[in-house]
């Protein structure tokens, strides 16, 4: 017994320095990152209090960021651009690019960003940044949906100003040693397709070389949006969100060693490895998304002979438009074919973590074309997406969901309804232009086609025809 006590005492003495090193020397940034990801989403009031408390703690902010290497940050920012725009950035320390979907400016020199109590954000350029000759300012709408005027109307501008006698540089209230990425959660934020397509994928691309040492500045800030995607945003940045409009009554000036205004965009639910920042695929985004939500990868499906449970199908249920009028009959048919069926209602889909876990566990996701199908981003590799294509929505169904499945490693089954399965036949004669030539209606503009095909149509599936589709999905699910 005495020998054992001596051994235990000696072991305790040896462990003291190790415990000290862990507790007092361990990187506080890593500890906070784990804490953010492991905590359950907080209530709105708690999130707001936490952000306010952390944003005011300027000493803590500065000490956490001091170790970031400035030269590495500069090189990483440069990789967000290519060709002529990258050359401009190297020469002028600021460069802007414009595509049909997005505008983005990158600066590798210091900036002062004035966060106001209104939806106004001013970025004051310092040092050697040179805007094009004769230009004293550039305005960016930092939401990648330029093709949609309604989205841009809901997006507040960010002004990049060259400091001079008329735009004097405000003094810094908070100094940071990591760069900032500024983007808007206005636009179509709140629609799940646009949350993923317009915001989370572009943010993943833009922040890829900077994560997690980057500060996010959200304009048109909505607390509910930040709360919903808290785990994803925490995987992008170690630090608390800076918001505009700010909750700070005085407003503050935050100074950064560099910044990105706007987000890079590669296409519908897409990451293109040939575009800047380079070598990122849609699969890379899915891995990032799944890991940020702690979704475990599933083993390949067992064969029919060894599978204990029937494959799970999740049906996306719609309520306001493109509703599946005989939903219960479709569910019963799916069960006859051999599926277990869970229904994802709009209310259920409002809980991001729960719906992500449910869909990640299923083998088949079924739904009528619409934003709910974007939940396919949570499917495990090799799973099946079944899209019901309403009358007149062939192109968007292909562009938004069919084509992206290829890069997501998913299997795809499509069911195009006949006109007899659309409620449009109840509103218009069989020879009406809306029935016989939907493309001619789309050619008149989105505002003309939207109330007809997007908002004004429901479907009632022919169960005999649809059985074949379900049987195909079953075969693919069991491969």
UniProtKB/TrEMBL annotation:
Pathway(s) where this gene product acts: Glycan metabolism
GO cellular component: Golgi membrane
Region feature Disordered, mapped onto this chain: 42-65
Domain Glycosyltransferase 61 catalytic, first and last residues per copy: 298-386
GO MF annotation: an example: pentosyltransferase activity
Composition skew (Basic and acidic residues), residue ranges: 53-65
Keyword tags: Glycoprotein, Glycosyltransferase, Transferase
Protein name: Glycosyltransferase 61 catalytic domain-containing protein
UniProt membrane topology term: Single-pass type II membrane protein
Pfam families according to UniProt: Glyco_transf_61 (PF04577)
Top-level division of the source organism's lineage: Eukaryota
Subcellular location: Golgi apparatus membrane
Source organism of the structure: Rhynchospora tenuis
């Amino acid at each position: 017994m005495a020998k054992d006590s001596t051994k235990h005492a000696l072991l305790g003495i040896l462990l003291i320095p190790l415990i000290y090193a862990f507790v007092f020397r361990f990187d506080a940034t890593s500890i906070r990152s784990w804490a953010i990801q492991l905590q359950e989403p907080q209530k709105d009031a708690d999130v707001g209090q936490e952000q306010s408390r952390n944003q005011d703690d300027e000493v803590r902010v500065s000490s956490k960021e001091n170790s970031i290497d400035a030269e590495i940050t500069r090189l990483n920012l440069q990789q967000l651009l290519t060709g002529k725009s990258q050359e401009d950035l190297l020469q002028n320390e600021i460069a802007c690019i414009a595509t049909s979907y997005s505008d983005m400016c990158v600066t590798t020199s210091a900036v002062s960003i004035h966060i106001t109590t209104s939806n106004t954000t001013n970025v004051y350029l310092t040092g050697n940044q040179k805007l094009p000759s004769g230009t004293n300012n550039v305005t960016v709408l930092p939401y990648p949906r330029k093709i949609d005027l309604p989205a841009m109307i809901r997006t507040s501008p960010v002004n990049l100003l060259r400091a001079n006698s008329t735009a004097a540089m405000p003094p810094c209230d908070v100094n940071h040693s990591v760069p900032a990425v500024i983007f808007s959660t206005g636009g179509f934020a709140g629609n799940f397709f646009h949350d993923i397509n317009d915001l989370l994928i572009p943010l993943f691309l833009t922040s890829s070389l900077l994560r997690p040492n980057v500060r996010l500045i959200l304009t048109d800030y909505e607390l509910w949006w930040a709360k919903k995607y808290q785990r994803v945003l925490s995987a992008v940045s170690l630090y608390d969100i800076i918001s505009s409009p700010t909750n700070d009554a005085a407003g503050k000036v935050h100074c950064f060693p560099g910044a990105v205004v706007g987000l890079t965009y590669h296409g519908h639910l897409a990451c293109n490895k040939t575009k800047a920042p380079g070598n990122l695929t849609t699969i890379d985004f899915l891995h990032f998304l799944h890991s940020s939500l702690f979704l475990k990868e599933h083993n390949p499906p067992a064969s029919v002979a060894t599978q204990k449970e029937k494959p799970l199908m999740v049906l996306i249920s719609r309520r306001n438009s493109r509703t599946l009028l005989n939903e219960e009959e479709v569910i019963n048919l799916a069960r006859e074919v051999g599926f277990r069926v869970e229904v994802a209602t709009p209310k259920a889909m409002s809980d991001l973590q729960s719906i992500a876990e449910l869909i990640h566990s299923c083998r088949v996701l079924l739904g009528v074309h619409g934003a709910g199908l974007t939940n396919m981003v949570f499917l495990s590799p090799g799973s099946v997406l079944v899209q019901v294509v309403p009358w007149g929505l062939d192109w968007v169904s292909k562009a938004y969901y069919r084509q992206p499945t290829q890069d997501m490693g998913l299997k795809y089954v499509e069911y195009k309804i006949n006109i007899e399965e659309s409620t449009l036949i109840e509103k218009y004669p069989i020879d009406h232009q809306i029935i016989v030539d939907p493309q001619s209606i789309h050619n008149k503009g989105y505002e003309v086609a939207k109330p007809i095909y997007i908002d004004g149509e429901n479907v009632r599936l022919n169960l005999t025809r649809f059985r074949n589709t379900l049987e195909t999905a079953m075969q693919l699910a069991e491969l």
